[in-house]
Predict the structure.
Amino acid sequence: MERLTEILRNNRNAAGTALLLLILTMVAFPYLLGVSAALGVVLLLLVLAVAAAIYRWLNHSPVALDRPLSAARLTFGVLVGFVVVGAAIQAVPYGWDRSNPPITAEPPWDSARTRELTVRACFDCHSNEVEYPWYARVAPISWVVQGHVSSGRDAVNYSEWDRPQEEAHESAETVREGEMPPAYYTRLAHDRARLTEMERSELIAGLIATLGGGEDESDD
C-alpha cells in the first residue's frame, strides 16, 4: 500500500490524466453513442497498454514507477496508442454490412403524414431503408450503428409487415415516453429525427391510429 501511494504521489499528473480519460470514456459512450461504457473502457485499456509498451521502448529499460514518468513520452505513447488501436479495430468485420434487405410490406398507415414522421424518427433503425452516414464505416461507431440497426429491426421493422411484429403496438408509447427516437440519436446528428412537440403529438396519434396501443395511454 505504501508503494502504491508513493507511485501515485510521484506520478499524480499521469494518474490524474488516466482517471480523466476513464471518466470521459464512461460518460461519452453511453451519452453520445447509446452503448455500454464497458466497450469504451476496453478500448481505452488497449490504448493505455500500447502506450505503456511504447513508453518502455522509448525508455530502453524497465519503467521505474517509483520515479516521475516523462510526460512527453507518455503523451506520445497515448497518441500512438490511439492510432494503433484505431487502425487495428477497422479489421473487425462486424459493422461492415450496410445493406438493406428487400422491403416486403409496410403497415397500413392512417395517413401520409404519419408515415413521413415515422420515416424521419424511426426508419434509420426500424426499417430496411436505413441511410447509413459516412461515419458508419469507421469502427467503433460502425459497431454501434450495426448493433442499433439489428436490435431495432428485431423489435419492429416497418419494412417487413408481412411477418409478426409483437412489439409494434408499443410504438406510440415509446415515443410518448421519450424513448424513441433516443436522445443519443438526435443529440449530435440526425437533425431530421428531432421532432417538435407538435410533431411528436402528431406521430403518437398517427401510430395509435395505425398500430394501436392507445389503451396504454396514462392518465394526466
